Amino acid sequence: MDKIKLTYEDFEIGQKVVCCESETYDKEQLYDIWMTVGKTYTIIDLDFHFWDKICVKTDNKSSHGTFLPIECFVDAAEMIRITREKKLKRICK
Fold first, then answer.
1. Does the reported pTM lie above 0.85?
2. CATH number for 54
3. pLDDT confidence tier of residue 2, bands split at 50, 70 and 90
4. In terms of CB atoms within 10 Å, which end of the chain has fewer, N or C?
5. In this structure, is the dihedral angle defined by the CA atoms of residues 4, 52, 26 and 64, taken in order, positive or negative?
């Protein structure tokens, strides 16, 4: 079964997302564009011209925002749920 590809329509401006490693971007590439793996970012813009990207403000102080591939992010609420499940499994062992 193919993995469902998310588009800009699956997100909202103001939504919190967490930067994560992806298949096309590794930690060094994300560092080069001023992103931190594991840090929470807020979506500041969405555009149909960039259907597979979301715009977030990067860690670079002078940056206004950068459109980055959606695969570099995971929803913050989903990340919290996954973390809780892992902790519960570890405690129950």
1. no
2. 2.30.30
3. very low
4. N
5. negative
